[in-house]
Amino acid sequence: MTLSRRTLVGAAAALPLLPRTAGAQARPRIVILGGGFGGASAARFARDHFPDLDITLIERSRRFTTCPYGNLVLAGRKRIDDITFGYERLAARGVRVVHAEAAAVDAEGRAVRLADGSRIPYDRLIMSPGIDLRWGAIEGYDQAASARMPHGWIPSLQPITVLAEQLRAMRQGGVFVMAIPDNPFRCPPGPYERISMVADYLKRHNPRAKILALDAKNGFSKQPLFQDAWAELYPGMIEWRGASSDGRVTRVDVANMTVETEFGEKVRGDVINVIPPQYAAAIARNAGLAADSGWCPIKPESFESARVPNIHVIGDASIAVPMPKSGFAASSHAKQAIAAAAAQLSGRPVPEAVYFNTCYSHVGEDYGISIVGVFRAQGGRLIEVEGSGGISPRNAALPEGRRAEHRRLEALYADGWYESITREMFALS
């Protein structure tokens, strides 16, 4: 790896503060919609670095369960409580936290309308709404079907414990089937970490079981690293089939617990995990922020919407290629969006945009892999800085006897990253 695994937020301390105003009523109002990796990071960063801003965070849930580390709950290596956090510390630091359902954005009137009809006005809105699942994109797969064939992809919609309970109840020697979508979707390595953590559980509790992963793509993030690990840790247990090998699932039959592939093969599973195609959450689409793709185009220098002024769209809902849709990326978007909004409100130039991403994956006990990237805004688009990133070395590239230690350290770095970013988001330190 060419970069340190430590969280990179160094430029924050150098950002100028807004000039003080005559009274609290005159303070510029930043409203943040959504309290996940993007929204919570934005609220903490704004409160710490821009004390003259009025900061409101709108989040319907009082507790937030992270998608990262949810796969470790499947493996039985984490509890759901270990990855669930509250907003009390953010509120104690001076963020106004409103636990309510946001019904709509009035871009012309610069206000968020809540489900009870009340309105929260803003000068700048930071949208971190997350994703929705495209129900019906796979024939037969709707919200009702997800009770029998869980997705476990949006914790507020369906906790990962639903899938975990089915995994634990699976018959000995049974088949765990996954349907994986085409790009783009939240957390590109997530399905493959999930395969790994399901295999980790089955190796210990149901060693004759099999995993069949049906993928709508012909390749995936960190593929050689995952497949090295599967061969080493779970020989004979995992079969992955890409699109060219008839891996695209087009239909499900919940009653018979089968999925049907593009060329008509019917596959039965004892447990079936369907991760459907996705798009930006409805509140963003309904506000006119999304393109025909369902995702929200942005200006890379500030993450301000390319379609609606005074609104910044961060995190999974945004179109930020080549950056992946990840928690670390959302946190990085958040800091630049807040700094840009603060600058725009005070008539200053937007700070130079530099974004970071580190994505760790657990593939077994004491076995981690990762990928890192640094990105800049240049010429109206995001580019990855040449030579800035890196990926874990493959098994063959590691000296004999060093492999296990290298993978163990990567798993420790992953744990350190997770603790660091959640402590930052939820003001635990």
Automatic annotation (TrEMBL):
Pfam families, per this entry? Answer: FCSD-flav_bind, FCSD_central, Pyr_redox_2
Q: Where is the FAD/NAD(P)-binding domain?
A: 29-141
Membrane-crossing residues?
none
Where does the Sulfide dehydrogenase [flavocytochrome c] flavoprotein chain central domain start and stop, copy by copy?
162-276
Q: Which residues form the Flavocytochrome c sulphide dehydrogenase flavin-binding domain?
A: 351-426
Instruction: Alphabetically list the UniProt keywords.
Output: FAD, Flavoprotein
What is a single molecular function from GO for this protein?
A: flavin adenine dinucleotide binding
Q: What is this protein called?
A: NADPH-dependent 2,4-dienoyl-CoA reductase/sulfur reductase-like enzyme
Please name the source species: Neoroseomonas alkaliterrae
